[in-house]
Amino acid sequence: MHTRPGAAPATAADRQQRLPSIAVRHVHWFRWSGADPFSGSSLYACRCGVVRPGL
Questions:
Q1: Domain membership flag for residue 40
Q2: Does some domain include residue 11?
Q3: What is the pTM of this model?
Q4: What single DSSP character describes residue 39?
Q5: Looking at the domain assignment, is residue 18 inside a domain?
Q6: For 3-26, what is each residue's pLDDT tens digit?
């Protein structure tokens, strides 16, 4: 069963089929989130949940 144009896909198969046409590239935007208690360096987190240590 297919969804009408403009409607949210109902099944995982429909979502997978539409993914390449609606995919948006995510650019990480890291912001300071605190100090790492183990190494003492600063931690930076992106809005998507990726966390990286400072250099």
A1: yes
A2: no
A3: 0.51
A4: T
A5: no
A6: 556 666 567 666 556 555 556 788
